Amino acid sequence: MFKRAAAALLATAALVPAFGAPANTFDRDMNTMWEVLWHQSGTATRLVRWEKDLQVRVIGPNAPAHREHSLEAIRAVAAEAGVKVNDVTDRADAAEVANVTFEVVPNDKLSPMQPCQTGLNFFTEKAIESALVQMRDSDAQRCAFHEAMHVMGVRGHPEGETVLSYFTAHSHSLLPLDKAMLRAWYSPKAKGGMTPFEMLPILADQLVSVSKNKAAASVQRDRFLARTVQEMEAFADGRGDVPAILKRSGKVTDSGIKFGRVEMSYFLGVAYQEGACVQRSEAQATRWLQVAGNMGSRSAQARLAGASGS
């Protein structure tokens, strides 16, 4: 969303050349992929996505003027994801059956600094149950594709050539990088609840697959993954400056950094346990899970208990 508000635990300016360009372009696209795995609050997050058809309605005083464009946007993202869309707007029971609502609101209902927002609802941070998009009447046309990406579970407002960016002038159709994100997000290899390090290689592989020079892209992929793990280990350990990804993804606060280190320690533990982005290492997995567990992570404590009991 152009300033995202999330219901229930939800969840800069460079236009990049086409895929297959020089290595620094691939790195830039990988940074974009990495940023969509972060909450706007500045915390890395798990993958959430739809596991059922979308039942969509478009409502509001001036909804007819924006209905087709809103439906065009949600159908475009859903097509890349392989998710079916049904327009239930005209049904008498639309309010009951819809799980995605686009609400076109009067211009004075939302701030000019937040002309559109999306809230996702889910019982666990795995599968999306419903979504509400609110768009100011005057901004609905430029918001629709941006918000539709969020509806599908893709977070953030990263740099790069994507409709998620605050700084791209392109807002009326999906760009190649948007399509790559969605295909990875909903690929058979991905599943709801995946940690960032489990999901990042899937995003990276999708980027490699659409690169002209796949051999060079594969080398860049491996370097990016290794460098990212090193940076996140330093962050979790409290070494060095706060990573730039936190500053771009959200507001840096002491409490946010503390929570982020707990979460990142857990994510690193899972990465080493599962061999995601790194070579599998039970010693490193135990180390990071213990760090997270000692700081209060129940997820880490449960993993440690499961490992000791197996």
- Which parts are unreliable, with pLDDT below 50 for 5 consecutive residues or more? 2-22
Percent of residues in helices comes to: 40-55%
Structural class: alpha/beta
Distance between the termini: 43 Å
CATH class of the largest domain: Alpha Beta
Strand content: 5-15%
Task: Fill in the keyword field for this structure.
310 residues; alpha/beta; Collagenase (Catalytic Domain); five-stranded mixed beta sheet; 11 helices; 9% strand; TPR-like_helical_dom_sf; signal
Question: What would your notes on this structure say?
Answer:
With 310 residues, the protein is of the alpha/beta class. It has 2 domains: 23-185, Collagenase (Catalytic Domain), CATH 3.40.390; 196-309, no CATH class. The protein contains 11 helices and 5 strands, in the order αβαβαβββαααααααα. The chain has helices at 23-35, 63-81, 94-97, 140-151, 176-185, 196-209, 214-237, 244-249, 254-274, 282-294, 298-309; strands spanning 54-59, 85-87, 100-105, 116-121, 130-136. Helix 1 (23-35) runs antiparallel to helix 6 (196-209) and helix 7 crosses helix 9 (254-274). The longest helix has 24 residues, at 214-237. Residues 1-23 form the signal peptide. InterPro entries: TPR-like_helical_dom_sf. Keywords: Signal.
